[in-house]
Design brief:
Blueprint: E1 2-8, E2 16-20, H1 41-44, E3 51-57, E4 75-79, E5 88-93, H2 102-108, E6 122-125, E7 143-147, E8 159-161, E9 166-168, H3 170-183, E10 191-197, H4 199-206, H5 208-212, E11 220-226, H6 241-253, H7 261-264, E12 286-291, H8 295-302, H9 314-318, H10 325-341, E13 352-356, H11 367-370, E14 377-378, E15 381-382, H12 383-391, E16 398-400, E17 411-417
Length: about 425
Amino acid sequence: MEILRFMPMKIFWVLCVVIVFVSWEKVDCFQGLNVTEVYDGQKNGWFNKPLMVGLTLIPGAAAKGAVCLDGSLPGYHLHRGYGSGANSWLVQLEGGGWCDTIRNCVYRKTTRHGSSKYMEKFIAFTGLLSNKHSENPDFYNWNRVKIRYCDGGSFSGDSQNERAQLYFRGQRIFEAAMEELKSLGMRYANQALLSGCSAGGVASILHCDEFRELFPGNTRVKCLSDAGLFLDAIDVAGHRTMRKLFGSLVHLQGVGPHLPRSCTSRLNPIMCFFPHRLIADVRTPLFLVNAAYDAWQIQASLAPPSADPHRYWYGCKLNNAHCSGQQIQFLQGFRRQMLGAIKRFGKFRKNGYFINSCFAHGQTERQDTWLAFGSPHIRNKGIGESVGNWFFDRAETKIIDCPYPCDRTCHNLVFKHL
């Protein structure tokens, strides 16, 4: 387990300490009870005590084969909407990395990301899940749901390994969860937003059009992906680490048949697990929130230990302030690749994005980055406001930050040790 601390760049910001897993099996979005945060929130009055929402298991899921890696029931956390938001639904797909080998998945099924036996009974709803108008003015009184992630394949696989007693049933979990929510009133929604962070951000893209089909044509339905724009990038050793990971995952979990046909009809299914090859063909309006220097991708796909045996990148990965000029140039190339990946996607008026030049990973589920005093901004627009403007068609929202180091509002991740 690695310990991070958030280092906001203005001196009046509060230092945060977070515990996060950085490995193939355990990637998180640093939110809720999945993070240990030290804020002086009460003293400064920045954040109120977050809403804690209980876990509900889906009783009928087992009969449909919709089970976690270990065969346990999948679950969700629901806080009911009221008033003007009583018929509006925000469905959040939890993130948490992937498992791409039998060994990794066997380990994962002994954690909250592989079994509901280990899931927290209550989690905090913050950021876009907050129930406070001051923290989340556009969605605070909606029906807000977090679907727990326990399949290791971005809610997309459908296979099993009997010898290892592993169930790769992400697609079935997604379908069972949607049926459950529809029975609880989501079928009558007048507007709905599917969101997700990291591996959940990949899932929100993969399932976006499928989510749209759950509702009548006159329902406003859109999708949001946070830190889900994983690129098929070349690492510092000239290899494609992410392609290897996704290739193993797609084969192990039987993902191929459930990927969008708009992509698999022309490309290998492995390539179609990369969101940047899918986004332009998603018919439903889609918004991307992403750090141009995604901290997880730098750690695990651009400069993983396998590509950096002499640890030339070690200090740079811990703290972007320690990167050499040559390393920054490499990372600028990664940023340019990301901007190139969204070029065709951005031509459609229905889509939107907020790409800031931060060393971060996941910014919609944290209150300090979603909407708070000192939160990240681009041209006086914050993330929460930008997403709301796009969803409600208040403004066309396509915002790209200038290159590092121009943005002084970033909440950059600084790693204490790896």
